[in-house]
Specification:
Strand content: over 45%
Helix content: under 10%
Shape: globular
CATH class: Mainly Beta
Number of domains: 1
Number of strands: 15
CATH topology: Methylamine Dehydrogenase, Chain H
Order of helices and strands: EEEEEEEEEEEEEEE
Structural class: mainly beta
Radius of gyration: 15 Å
Distance between the termini: 23 Å
CATH superfamily: YVTN repeat-like/Quinoprotein amine dehydrogenase
Strand order of the largest sheet: 1-2-3-4
Length: 158
Amino acid sequence: MFDLKRGRAYTQGGGGIVAIDVVKREVLALWPAGCSSSHGIPVVDEERGFVFAGCSSTGGGVVLDANDGHRIAGYETGGGSALMGYSASLGHFYLRGDPGEPVAILGVCANGQMTPLATAMASDHGHGVTADDRGHIWVCDGTTGGLIRFTDPFPAAH
């Protein structure tokens, strides 16, 4: 995932996030996520300065500071490998483990702390989560080969 504001790209690597300087094309740092192995495509909130990382077990996700990579907060949904989505306009982080049914809707405060808002139940398998700019969460449904759409009814986190 790219962070144009900071001129970086982020990818999962081992147990954390690899921060890459896109101009110099060099690795800046490996930021630990606090899990033994990372998983998923990192999610970035450029304006608020957050990078979200996923773990390969327990449906765990963390918020890292985009400037220096320190861990701000973490949350686990249970299940397997973390799948993540984010709505920058709402400041909501969507997290689930695959396999696993619950999709956590988490409000992300200005300081990066996460507050559970609700849990939506999806199918047990489906390797993808994303959010759109209209307040919807989209979750892959591996049992039908389709998508499940949830509406996020909560106000923006600040």
